[in-house]
Amino acid sequence: MRSIRPGPVSSPAQPIGDHDPERARAQPTGIGELDRVLGGGLVPGSVVLLAGEPGVGKSTLLLDVARRYAARGGPPALIVTGEESAAQVRLRGERTRAVHPALFVAAENDLSALLTHVDRVAPGLLIVDSVQTITSQGVESSAGAVTQIRAVTSAVIALAKKREIATVLVGHVTKDGSIAGPRVLEHLVDVVLHFEGERHSALRLIRAAKNRYGAADEVGCFEMREGGIVGLEDPSGLFLSDRVAAVPGTCVTVTQQGRRPMVTEIQALAVPGVSGGSLRRAVSGLDTGRVAMLLAVLTRHARLPVADQEIYAATVGGIAAAEPAADLAIALALASAVRGVALPPTVCAIGEVSLSGDIRSVPGLDRRLAEAARLGMTTALVPAGYRNRLTNDMVSRPVATIGAALSAAGALAAGLATAPDPIGAPVLPPDPPLGTNARSRRGGTSKRR
């Protein structure tokens, strides 16, 4: 094996205490929700990869970030766009009020031209939109190819580290939502952010998948408006309906997006299916598999008659509530829809439902209940064993099983509506023990209540 000899170094090694920490101190972008996800702001010399679907608002958000950076009076900001012309970026800047003399824009698709612009402008912030559109003449492949993306990203990262330029690379995503290009890019950069949102919803979320300078489980909330993207410091109100009267098929829960609790309303609708036709199960904002599992649990352990019902379930506001903590609220909303009995609008439910019908504990319960109390919830159905450690007027009702939860919900609903069949009442007698003949146990007939 060929030996490797010592070579020149870029800078001598020094004691850790001799290095200046201010050179790596995060600089706030001026957008609180983005700073929350970044861990305080953009670090000089760091490289951030921001990925999202086309049209979600990546370029609009970064244009606002560049304008705020340029307005500080320090080094200028430079946007290199390979997808639009400079005039198109100017038009967006006028619409979102993001025009500033210290904000430079260049439309380039060549890596060498990008490096030249950096030499001439000497920016403190560099935004490349997008990395898939930039090509290196030294690589023989088309734009967007794996080798091109790797070469361009490596060159930009080396430039950012050498000159201590805070850099943001915009990335495309594939059909399954993953970042396009080689996975090595996510290892090379310092921060990986995912920009999420649906076209028909104004809500936008930024999630940190990797962060060397802060927590990797933070979430930033934004709202897309005509004048641009605005951060939402208190987004919980977006996920509750505006009605005051109680309606069957609804239940409030508290999901946790990263470290942030968000009060979310679950809605369900049950209608009789067409005789002889297939039953429809439509879900929006929820995990389809978990909803199917909860229907099975309700059928087995609560005798809820859903075999001939079409079921529709969704969240309010377009937020996703796929974590197990929303199980109990989904189950209560389904039972409420099937029974036609409304839960009080000030009741919330938090807990994971197991296949055995038990209610399991979930992390961050104190924080979730505090957020629910802040938004006016007065009663919470929680897993058994929880002891309320909050200093507020919220009443927590521990429930151990799905049957106990339905009974407690039925008692809470009794003050709003009277139904011949309470929400927690079974519709079938209990199953006989294993090994017992059901017909002889029930007197030769099988009766339904």
What would you say this structure looks like, in words?
With 449 residues, the protein is of the alpha/beta class. It folds into 2 domains: 28-233, P-loop containing nucleotide triphosphate hydrolases (Rossmann fold), CATH 3.40.50.300; 238-413, Ribosomal Protein S5, domain 2. The chain has 11 helices and 18 strands. The protein has helices spanning 32-38, 58-70, 86-95, 111-121, 146-163, 184-188, 288-301, 327-339, 365-374, 402-413, 438-441, and strands at 47-52, 77-81, 103-107, 125-129, 166-171, 191-196, 203-211, 219-225, 228-231, 250-257, 260-272, 281-284, 309-315, 347-349, 352-353, 359-360, 379-383, 395-399. A 9-stranded mixed β-sheet has the order 3-2-4-5-1-6-7-8-9, sandwiched between helices. Helix 7 crosses helix 8 (327-339) and helix 8 packs across helix 10 (402-413). It starts with 31 loop residues before the first helix and ends in an 8-residue tail after the last helix.
- Which structural category fits the helices and strands? alpha/beta
Please give the alpha-carbon distance between the first and last residues: 82 Å
Give the overall average pLDDT: 85
Shape: elongated
Count of helix runs: 11
Please sum up the structure shown:
This protein is of the alpha/beta class.
Which features would summarize this protein structure in a list?
2 domains, Rossmann fold, Ribosomal Protein S5, domain 2, nine-stranded mixed β-sheet, disordered C terminus, alpha/beta, 449 residues
What is the secondary structure topology, with strand pairs?
Layout lengths: L31 H7 L8 E6 L5 H13 L6 E5 L4 H10 L7 E5 L3 H11 L3 E5 L16 H18 L2 E6 L12 H5 L2 E6 L6 E9 L7 E7 L2 E4 L18 E8 L2 E13 L8 E4 L3 H14 L7 E7 L11 H13 L7 E3 L2 E2 L5 E2 L4 H10 L4 E5 L11 E5 L2 H12 L24 H4 L8
Parallel strand pairs: 1-5, 1-6, 2-3, 2-4, 4-5, 12-13, 14-17, 17-18
Antiparallel strand pairs: 6-7, 7-8, 8-9, 10-11, 11-13, 15-16
